[in-house]
Design goal:
Layout: H1 2-23, E1 26-31, H2 36-54, E2 59-64, H3 67-75, E3 82-84, H4 88-96, H5 109-112, E4 115-117, E5 119-123, H6 134-137, E6 144-145, H7 153-169, H8 174-186, E7 188-190, H9 195-204, E8 210-214, H10 215-223, E9 233-235, E10 239-241, E11 243-245, E12 247-249, H11 251-257, H12 260-269, H13 273-280, H14 289-294, E13 303-305, H15 307-311, H16 314-322, H17 327-333
Helix pairs in contact: 3-4, 7-8
Length: about 325
């Protein structure tokens, strides 16, 4: 009798432990700061998808911050299974430290970028300075707001957008390109460390004539109830930079935790038609053919330039432009 009781208790204990283990199955996604609402919408859909497929209940934990900070935290030991960043260079930083495979951009479609954006301009009601292109931003009568490219991802894309536009305009004449980008940097009336502070400077403190940030953010700000009475207008220049939002499994962590299958499917799920449609409701651009066709009227006509087509690999871009002593530092030192 005693043996039966002990066996029953052991069986119940084992079952309970297994149940708890199943309930606790989870992954941690580290993402960029302004992605909170986006993943609040994506994650419940994925947990439903996984439940229907496997019968398992799972949890998606989230971490939001600047992606350079996120990458540094992961290198220092934070156990993150997947990253959904807005900077290729920050994933390459993880590669450098042996956390992500070198060929991570081949793991998923479109260079492991489920969605993308570009740099656009937010201008004041009626567009009083008639700002339409990058050329207008360097006029003497125009002042702009965007974060410091030394600390902000979207600001780096603003810098690259200006550089690539000028590179095309001046047929690669680097002296003229530097002069153009230098003028843009000199026109910045407020140079905060992050995107949220730049929005406050422009929208609340009424500094500058144009705010530069991701197109998705520009549209979201213009439609924000808080700023509706401001009458902000969205300007998408006809030529701008391709800003891909890369994703990757943090291989070392996923393999150690046994979460690779879940982590991989979580990222692959972002390419499904359902999520591609959801992404467009956040004014992000996608590549799914059916969704692109259905939402074509939602977006301004645009020709994008991929930075790597002009400036080399992202490692080269980082070293030449954004590393200490690079071109950006030189141009900032001449800023008046």
């Amino acid at each position: 009798m005693l043996k039966k009781i002990i066996l029953a208790v052991a069986t119940v204990s084992a079952f309970s432990a297994t149940a708890v283990q199943a309930q606790e199955k989870s992954i941690l996604n580290a993402s960029y700061d302004v992605a909170r609402e986006l993943f609040a919408a994506i994650n419940p859909k994925f947990t439903e998808h996984w439940k229907a497929k496997t019968g398992e209940d799972i949890k998606i934990d989230q971490s939001f911050a600047g992606t350079s900070r996120q990458a540094q935290d992961i290198v220092q030991g934070k156990k993150v299974d997947v990253v959904t960043f807005n900077q290729v260079t920050d994933i390459n930083f993880l590669v450098k430290h042996g956390l992500v495979k070198e060929d991570w951009q081949k793991a998923f479609e479109n260079n492991s970028s489920p969605y993308y954006s570009t740099i656009a301009f937010l201008v004041r009601k009626g567009n009083p300075k008639n700002i339409k292109t990058w050329d207008d931003l360097v006029r003497d009568d125009v002042k702009v707001v965007f974060p410091n490219p030394k600390t902000s991802g979207n600001a780096r894309y603003s810098y690259l957008g200006a550089w690539l536009y000028a590179h095309e305009k001046f047929n690669g004449d680097e002296a003229k390109v530097k002069e153009f980008v230098g003028k843009l940097l000199a026109s910045v009336v407020n140079f905060p460390t992050g995107g949220r502070a730049a929005t406050v400077a422009f929208a609340q403190n009424e500094q500058g004539d144009a705010l530069l940030t991701f197109e998705s953010e520009v549209i979201n700000i213009a439609n924000d109830k808080e700023y509706k009475d401001k009458g902000f207008e969205v300007v998408v220049p006809p030529v701008s930079v391709l800003a891909e939002f890369p994703v990757a499994v943090v291989d070392k962590v996923a393999d150690n935790r046994g979460s690779r299958e879940l982590a991989t499917e979580y990222l692959q799920f972002q390419y499904t038609k359902e999520i591609q449609e959801l992404l467009t409701t956040f004014n992000l651009r996608v590549n799914h053919p059916e969704v692109v066709k259905a939402t074509e009227a939602q977006y301004a006509p645009l020709r994008t330039i991929n930075p790597t087509d002009v400036l080399g690999s992202w490692n080269e871009i980082q070293e030449n432009h954004f590393a200490s002593g690079g071109i950006l530092d030189d141009l900032l030192s001449k800023r008046r």
